[in-house]
C-alpha cells in the first residue's frame, strides 16, 4: 500500500552543482493523478424538460418531504449553494470538458443518443469513451446499426441501459439480443440499478419502479451470458445485501458509485460504500459522477469520494482509476499508484 494521495507531489529537483546556485529552489508543484469517470451523460439539454436550472446536492442533509400540490420537480428543496445547469448543448459540452480537464479525468464513459454522443466525441476526443443509451426496444439505433457501430469501435460501451425506467426487468426478452450482441463483441455494459430522482414515478418517469433496483434481477442474464462484462451503475443502491451477494456470486461484475457521491446524504454514501469495501469488493468499485446538466457535480463527486475517511490511498486510487482501467481493458502499464 503506497501512501500517495491524488495530489502527488513532485519536487522539481534542482540540478546538482559544485557551486551553490544563487537562484532559490523551485516551489513544489502538484500534479493530479488520473481519474476515470464511468458515468457521464451526453443527453441534449432539451432531454431535461423542464430544464432543472438548479439542483441541490444533499451531502449531509435530509431528503425532502414532497407536497405535490405546491412544488414541482427539482424545486423541492432550497440550499445555499445549488448547482447551476448549463442552458444550451454547447455550454454543457464546454463546461463539462473543462471539468474533465481540470480534474485530470482522462476517460469518461459518456452515454446518450447516438447523434449527441458523436458531438461529444468530436469535442472531447480521446477523453470521451462513447456509450450508447439503451432505453427501449423501439429506440432509434437498432440491432443491425449497433453491431456496425460496436464492431467499428465507434461505440465502446452499451449503456446506460435504463430498463428500470421503462418498468421492465433486465431479463426482458425485448433487450435480450442487445446483451447477446455486447457479449459477442466483448463490449462492456453499464446498467442502471437503483435510485432515480426522488418521486421519479410521479414526475417524468411514470414506469420507474424501485422494485427493479434489485441487483439479483441480473443473475439469470449473467448466467445466460457468462462473458458479459457488466457493471451495475449506482451499485444497486439501496439494495445492499443483494448487491453484495451478486458481487460475491458473480466475480466478473463491477459497480459504479455515481450519484451516490453527491445526491444522497453523505453518511449514507459512506455506510453503503463501507459495506461494499468491507465485504471485499474494493477492486470492483469504480468512480462515476452521473453528470447530467450540472457540470459542477463532477467536482462534488470527486471531493466526496476523495474524502471518504475509511478508504486507504490505494483503495482510492483503485476506485478512481485502476478498477475502471482493468474493467475497460485499457492498455497495460497504466496502473496508477
Ligand atoms: Zn443511472
Structure commentary:
This protein has 337 residues and is an alpha/beta fold. It has a single domain (33-48, 89-328), classed as Metal-dependent hydrolases (TIM Barrel), CATH 3.20.20.140. Helices cover 33% and strands 15% of the residues. The chain contains 11 helices and 12 strands. It has an 8-stranded parallel sheet with strand order 3-6-7-8-9-10-11-12. A two-stranded antiparallel sheet has the order 1-2. Helix 3 (143-151) packs parallel to helix 5 (173-185). The longest helix has 16 residues, at 313-328. The protein is globular, with a radius of gyration of 21 Å. The model is unreliable at 1-22 (pLDDT under 50). Bound molecules: zinc ion. The site of zinc ion has 5 residues, from loops.
- What's the average pLDDT? 86
What's the domain count?
1
Outline the low-pLDDT stretches: 1-22
Class, according to the CATH hierarchy? Alpha Beta
Helix count from the secondary structure assignment:
11
The CATH homologous superfamily name equals Metal-dependent hydrolases
User: What does the overall shape look like?
Assistant: globular
Distance between the terminal alpha carbons, to the nearest Å? 9 Å
Strand content: 15-25%
Keyword list:
TIM Barrel; about 325 residues; 11 helices; 12 strands; two-stranded antiparallel sheet; about 35% helix; alpha/beta; eight-stranded parallel sheet; binds zinc ion
Amino acid at each position: 500500500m503506497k501512501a500517495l494521495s491524488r495530489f502527488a507531489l513532485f519536487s522539481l529537483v534542482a540540478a546538482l552543482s559544485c557551486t551553490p546556485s544563487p537562484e532559490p529552489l523551485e516551489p513544489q508543484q502538484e500534479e493530479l493523478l488520473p481519474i476515470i469517470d464511468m458515468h457521464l451523460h451526453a443527453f441534449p439539454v432539451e432531454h431535461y424538460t423542464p430544464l432543472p436550472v438548479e439542483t441541490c446536492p444533499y451531502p449531509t442533509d435530509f431528503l425532502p418531504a414532497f407536497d405535490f400540490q405546491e412544488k414541482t420537480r427539482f424545486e423541492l428543496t432550497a440550499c445555499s449553494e445549488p448547482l447551476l445547469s448549463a442552458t444550451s448543448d454547447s455550454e454543457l459540452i464546454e463546461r463539462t470538458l473543462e471539468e474533465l480537464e481540470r480534474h485530470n479525468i482522462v476517460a469518461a464513459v459518456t452515454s446518450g443518443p447516438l447523434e449527441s454522443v458523436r458531438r461529444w466525441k468530436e469535442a472531447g476526443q480521446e477523453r470521451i469513451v462513447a456509450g450508447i443509451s439503451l432505453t427501449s426496444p423501439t429506440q432509434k439505433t437498432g440491432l443491425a446499426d449497433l453491431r456496425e457501430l460496436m464492431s467499428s469501435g465507434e461505440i465502446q460501451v452499451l449503456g446506460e441501459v435504463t430498463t428500470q425506467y421503462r418498468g421492465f426487468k433486465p431479463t426482458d426478452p425485448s433487450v435480450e439480443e442487445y446483451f447477446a450482441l455486447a457479449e459477442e463483441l466483448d463490449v462492456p455494459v453499464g446498467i442502471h440499478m437503483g435510485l432515480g430522482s426522488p418521486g421519479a414515478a410521479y414526475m417524468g418517469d411514470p414506469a420507474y419502479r424501485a422494485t427493479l433496483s434489485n441487483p439479483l434481477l441480473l443473475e439469470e442474464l449473467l448466467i445466460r451470458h457468462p462473458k458479459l462484462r457488466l457493471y451495475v451503475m449506482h451499485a444497486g443502491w439501496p439494495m445492499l445485501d443483494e448487491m453484495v451477494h451478486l458481487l460475491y456470486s458473480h466475480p466478473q461484475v463491477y459497480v459504479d458509485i455515481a450519484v451516490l457521491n453527491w445526491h444522497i446524504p453523505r453518511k449514507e454514501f459512506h455506510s453503503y460504500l463501507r459495506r461494499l469495501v468491507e465485504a471485499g469488493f474494493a477492486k470492483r468499485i469504480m468512480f462515476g459522477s452521473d453528470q447530467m446538466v450540472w457540470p459542477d457535480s463532477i467536482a462534488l463527486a470527486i471531493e466526496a469520494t476523495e474524502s471518504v475517511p475509511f478508504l486507504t490511498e490505494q483503495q482510492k486510487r483503485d476506485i478512481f482509476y485502476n478498477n475502471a482501467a482493468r474493467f475497460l481493458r485499457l492498455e497495460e502499464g497504466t496502473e496508477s499508484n
